Amino acid sequence: MILRKKVRCKQKYVQLDLFSPNNGSYEYSAVVTDAKDWDPEELLLFVAGRSAQETSIGELKTDFAFDHIPTNTYQANSAYQQISQMAYNLAISMQHSMGVTKKQESNRKRTRIYSRMEWKTFRFLILNRAGRIVHVQGKKVLEMTQNSATEKLYNKILRSLETVKLMKAA
Question: pTM (2 decimals)?
Fold first, then answer.
């Protein structure tokens, strides 16, 4: 399927040689599939909706070392990739239970239900915080620099985790 769509403003980029880029007022999309019963618009929306999956796969490969082959044995590499995938799923689940994710409107093109932080951002904001453990009245306390945005984020996470704990206890 090849789709040609007229756009309002002139495009700044040039299409491939497959199409004539002379006027620059059309946008082209091409999809190759064996599905004959799909409506062209539905097919294009389905393909465009994969962007959330591509982002997740990219994050899984780069931040969770899914693309790394550590050994020369199939079983060990399979176990390694399954552990990487479980770590990724745990990280996403942790964001949900901490209340960090936000529900977003889904439509045919937007397939992801929750917007979430990238793992690098999550790790930077929540896990990799500078601090030191001090003894206050015989108790160990984590002392951190005072930052109102960080305090709000940590309080939000604390409230969400307390809610989850109460729900599990009931």
Answer: 0.59
